[in-house]
Every structure is written in structure tokens, then in C-alpha cells.
Structure prediction request, 142 residues.
Amino acid sequence: MTAKIAYDDIEVGAELPAQTFPVTRATLVQYAGASGDFNPIHWNEKFAKEVGLPDVIAHGMFTMAEAIRVVTDWTGDPGVVVEYGVRFTKPVVVPNDDQGATIEVTGKVAAKLDDNTVRVDLTAMSEGKKVLGMSRAVVRLA
Prediction:
């Protein structure tokens, strides 16, 4: 597959469709099973609080994966992601209730680069706090 979006049709400043991703304790258990990361800060409220966290927190790599979905959904092909990096700034706190937490992600084309690539800057927020910093992806468009 290739990107559905043509490089020539994109302008710097173009905004990607924003998305909101729900995160529940069940989501964290599923991710732990898939990733093999069973650190108790991601599922044991007592342990998380004992080590100074406000509650159970989402896996950083899970948060990172949810954020890049804004880009891969926009391009139509996850294989066009050339680079992706973030800094983890705040945890996504996931309460033990029916609501859980949400991760709100927005993206904007920040630069047009060589070889039909663009840099997309992402903003990921949870509970009004930025949870990823320097979240940037380089993608190759059609």
C-alpha cells in the first residue's frame, strides 16, 4: 500500500483530523498481554500509589501508538511512516471506573521535506495535560 494523499496536494499548516482514544483498565490489561509489559504500575492501583503515582497509568508505548494512529489513519497506510519519536511528558492516569481516561490527539503538517516526505507534529493531551512532547512523524506521501 501507499499513502492516499499526494505530496503536491499538501500545504504546511494543514491539520489532520483530530481523534480521541478511550483508555480503560481493560485496555491496559490487553496491551500488557500483547506487549509483555506487566509492570504493576499499569494494573495495580495500590502499587502505583506506593511508588508515588496518582493511580494506574497507561503504558508510554501504548500512548505513543495511539497518537501515531492520527497519522496512519490520515495517510491510509502505516507503512509510509519513515520516522516517529516522542518525549514522555506526563502519564495518562487511568481511573478504575466505567469511564477510564481519554487521549486527545491533533496533528499538523509542520514541514515539507525532500523525497515526498512531510513532517507532522502531533499534540497528545489527557485531562488537559500534554502527555507527549516533541511528538513528530515523518511520512512519505504519494
